[in-house]
Amino acid sequence: MYMKNLFLVCSMTLIIANLSAQKSGVIQFTEAIKLQMDVQGADPEMMKKIPQMHSVPKTLIFNGKESVYKNVDKNADLELSNESDNGSQFKMVVKTPESTLYNDLENKKTIHSQEFFGKQFLIKGDIKKQTWKIAGESKTLLDYVCQKAVLQDTSNAVIAWFTTKLPANLGPGNFSGLPGAILMVDMDNGARVYTASKIELRELKEGEISIPTKGKEVTAEEFDKIKKEKMAEMGGTVGKGGNMR
Q1: How far apart are CA 112 and CA 71, in angstroms?
Q2: Alpha carbon distance 102, 191 (integer Å)
Q3: φ, ψ for residue 152 (rounded to 5)?
Q4: pTM of whole model > 0.70?
Q5: Around 69, how many Cα atoms within 13 Å sit in the side-chain half-sphere?
């Protein structure tokens, strides 16, 4: 009886140790974007029926050396249409741009294939170091106790929740640099929110992480200039959380 219990304890210890040592897996995220619409002449009652948020499923695939953050559904566009009592019609399509962000964690390099106004760009550069201030607050996400951290080196208000129970030092989008995996990010009081919905620690299959090659190669500075020029041409601006108006 003693030997049987000892074997059971050893087996459980081995399983826990293997999970703790697992440095690869998949984290599913929901990226919720606040829709900031201002349509001149639109019926106020009709505008009230338009959704305030648009949610897009994303996936973060990682191992100890590299990661990729990309869209799950290629058809995640949001179609909005409505007709008011006075016959006014409203129809709009909120496009979800194709996006694949690859990070070379060992060499601190990043490659981002990003669609913008129907054109695909390949943005190459260095992974930027982010400075965080860890706060004294905590909450539980997907059964993981997470700590609060505030990004210091940005004009946007960014709050992240990370767990030291997951070995991956990364997060959704470009967010990283905390001692554990980031499971939630809130930009500008809900303008854009990334929330982990499922965590699966496992060995990756061959080809699950691939380096994006699609698009015109530009630097991050060149891509920022292209965005500003296009938005000025369209009479729009970059809003809170990186949203386009």
Answers
A1: 12
A2: 24
A3: -95, -35
A4: yes
A5: 22
